[in-house]
Amino acid sequence: MTSIANRPPPPFRPEAGKVSQEQLNKIPCPNLRTLVNEGWIKIDKDGLADVGNIDEAFKRLGLSSLPRQALVKGGESATAAAVQEQFGHMVSGKINLFRLTGSVIDHAGDTQVLRGGAPNKARLEWMLGFANKDGRFGKAEIAELQRSAATSEPATLRDRAIGVAELTAIFQVYGTKDASGKKSLSKEGVTDLWQNSRFPEEWRAQLKSDGVGGVTNANQTTTLSLIAGVVGMAFRQIGTAAGRALMGIDMATGRDPQLNQTWAMSLSQSCPAGPPTAASKKDVDASHQAKLG
Amino acid sequence: MPVHAGLHLALPPEFTIDQTMVSFRAPPPTVGDPRVMQKQTPIRPSLIVHRRDVGDVALEILAGEITAELVQSVGGLSGLTTEAFSYDDGDLGIIISFDFAVPEVMTARQYHVVRKDGPILTTLTLTVDKLTLTDTAKTRWLAFFAAVARDGTGALA
């Protein structure tokens, strides 16, 4: 039997982004990779993309412009040197999508499907195994998937929060509503996003036919609503037994749970396409000190 | 009355304390710990004390809810036990404990100890190294838990 993950990838779409699979493999985020392959985000041979272009792609996805603001303002709050170090040409209004691997968006406890560059079919099969009996991913399946991903390797509270934010964002953006009005994503859609870097077909059907606009559902997904559940979860951590359990583990192993939670909030607010504000833990500390000074 | 140790807050008078949390951490292991030399993750004992008003709910019910939450939310949980005990002041206490293992990195034992003073639920979350948790060490921690007592003010902080 040929599984979905083993399904031959569709022909490459040269009319879209005009990028090679090798180039796509350098982009660690499934959403950004798909947006580049579909031609919604243009990159040059070195992986540089205009922030404005990314912002436009977000708008077409139905997102507010907050992610761009988070990117730009986040970049401005960090030192130019740190931004240069993290994202190369971001200071000049460009982001190097090839240099995100190893940056602050990388985190343990993710699905690991794209971690090695080329899609990992074994990990994709594992991921698809979390679909419900109808072959779809809803909130419950996403939660279980993330929980399992976060526990398959040592992961901090920050890792877990980013992982939840990442999956929630992707499923909220690309999910389609079923008869009961709840969003979910099919196994084929997951395969398209993570393996083929293509928009899910059932989601593509929602696209406006004018060749310019994005999704047809008028209700724009704001960043705030998109990550409301994630933010709530992060804030509730201390107030819950599970949050204290994880915090206790983080403290016992020398991690910094408080800063991790701050990070999770920051990352969540800029997550829909993947890249967060551009600063390392050290730079956040320096930035805080500078603001206080 | 200070609302936060070491900090003066000019709070609006209508504000009252809703919940409190304070965490403690033991010193890091010395270089004499062989795991440090082998670059393994050493466990640094930590304690989180959390207090909040939960209203008129029985401690057993709250302990059950906490246990269910932990089982559903904490990955890698094993060796779960729950046991009732008496604090030195005679109040009922419940200990929920489990192992938290990260393969090839470390195994920690975590205790969630609860007590209720009127509407206030106090939860102590202790995380210790299972490898060095001898009977003597365990007895010491249990004595620490048992000695937790209300101060009589009924305050959250």
Q: Strand portion of chain B, in percent?
A: 35-45%
Strand order of the largest sheet of chain B: 1-2-6-5-4-3
Total beta strand runs of chain B: 6
From the spread of the alpha carbons, the general shape of chain B counts as: globular
Query: Portion of residues in helices of chain B?
Result: 10-25%
Number of domains of chain A: 1
> SSE string of chain B, helix = H, strand = E?
EHEHEEEEH
Q: CATH class of chain A, please?
A: Mainly Alpha
Write up what this structure looks like.
The complex is a heterodimer of chains A (293) and B (157). Chain A has 293 residues and is mainly alpha-helical. Chain A has one domain (21-292): Chloroperoxidase-like (Chloroperoxidase). Chain A is 49% helix and 5% strand. In chain A, a hairpin with a 5-residue loop joins strand 4 and strand 5 (183-186). In chain A, helix 3 runs antiparallel to helix 4 (66-77) and helix 7 (139-151) runs antiparallel to helix 8 (157-174). The model of chain A is unreliable at 10-17, 65-83, 102-109, 210-214, 216-236 and 257-293 (pLDDT under 50). Chain B has 157 residues and is of the alpha+beta class. Chain B has a domain at 45-146: Protein Transport Mog1p, Chain A. Chain B has three helices and six strands, in the order E-H-E-H-E-E-E-E-H. The longest helix of chain B has 15 residues, at 59-73. The interface between A and B is medium-sized, with 20 and 35 residues.
